[in-house]
C-alpha cells in the first residue's frame, strides 16, 4: 500500500506576469508530459464567434513565424514526442508526452505554438473544411449527437450551453481576423497554466516558462457569467427521430459546482451507481434485464454548475423501461443505505484507479492543471484519497436525499419512433 512518503510531490509557482506553473515530480519514470491550459473557452464566446475556441485549437498547430505546420509536426516526431489538444466548455488544453529528458525541447515547440501561432490564411481556409467535417461527423454519430444536444439542453440559457464545435454557419462565416482578435483577447497570462508531470525539475520548468511565455499579453479574459437565478433545465424531455436500430439517451440531474463540499461523497455515489461492471446500472440494466450493451453514469463539473448524467443505448420498444430503471437506481440512494461491503469496494475501486493513474503522465498533467484551475491549487493525491476514505454510507444517503429527492431529470434521446418520456 502506498504511504504519504511515496506520493509524488506537487509544486506551484506563479510567474511575475501571472502565468502559473504546476508540477508533479515522479522520480524514476522514463516518460513525462507537459501541457499549457488556457482558462477561457466556449462559454466566453459570443453568438457570432461560436466555435472559435475549438477552431483556434486546430489552428495553433498550423504554423508560427519560425515553424510551418509541417515543421511543427516533424519536430515533434523527430524527438519522439506526441502532441495533441482538446477544447471543453471552460478550457483549451495543449499537451505533449515524451521522454522526461526531452521535455525542454517539447516545451519549446508547444510554447512557440501557444504564443506565436500566426493562423496563416491558407491554413484557416483548409482547417475550416476540417472543422465542418467534424461537425458533420458528430451529427452522424448517435452517441456524440445526443451528448451534444443533451449538454446544450441541460444548460440552456447558461454560457455552458454553447456548442463546443460551433455551427456550420458560425464556422463558415468567421474570418481569420476575428479569430486573431479572439485569441489576443483570451490567451492572457492570468488565464494560463503550465503543468508538467514525470521525472522533471520544477525550477527548470519555471525558468523555461518565464522565457518562453514572457511575450504573452497580460491580463484576465472576460468571463461570461450565468444569471444568478439560472437553474439547469430538468423535468423536460426531447426526442430526435431518426431511422436507427437503437434509441440512445442521456438523462441528467443537477449537482453543485466543481470543488463543492460533497464532491467525495458524490464520487463514491457515482462509482456505485454507474462506474464499471459492479455498478448498479450495469447489473440491473444490462445483466438482469438485458436492456443495453452500454450503460454508465458520469459527472460533468464546472466552476458554477455541474450535472450527474446517465447514458444508455437500448431497443426503442424498451427505452421507457430503461429510463424508468435508471431513475429508480438513482432514487435507491435516497431510500436505503449502501452496504458496508459495497461501500468498501467502491472506495477501493476509486483508490486503486487514482493510484494506478499516477503511472500515466498524460492523465496527471491534465489532473493537476484541472485542480489548479478549479480549486486554486493542485490537489495532493493523498488528500483526495483521504476524502474518499472518510465517506460513510449515511453521508451517501444524505447527499442523495439533498440532491435527488423529488427531482425529475432531463431526458434527451435519439432513435426511431416517439422515444422515451420522463421517468414514471
Description:
There is one protein chain. This protein is 43% helix and 19% strand. It has 424 residues and is of the alpha+beta class. The strands form 2 sheets. It has a 6-stranded mixed sheet, sandwiched between helices. It has a 5-stranded mixed sheet with strand order 7-11-8-10-9, sandwiched between helices. α12 (340-356) runs antiparallel to α14.
Write a concise synopsis of the structure shown.
The protein is α+β, with helices and mostly antiparallel strands.
Entry keywords:
five-stranded mixed sheet; globular; six-stranded mixed sheet; Insulinase family protein; MPP/UQCRC_Complex; 424 residues; Pept_M16_N
Runs with pLDDT <50, length 5+? Answer: none
Structural class determined from secondary elements: alpha+beta
Number of strands: 11
Fraction of residues in H or I helices? 40-55%
Tell me which oligomeric state these chains represent.
single chain
Alpha carbon gyration radius: 22 Å
- What is the element string, with H for helices and E for strands? EEEHHEEHHHHHEHEEHHEEHHHHHE
| Strand line-up across the major sheet | 1-2-6-3-5-4
Pfam families: Peptidase_M16, Peptidase_M16_C
InterPro entries: MPP/UQCRC_Complex, Pept_M16_N, Peptidase_M16_C
Protein name: Insulinase family protein
Domain Peptidase M16 N-terminal: 20-167
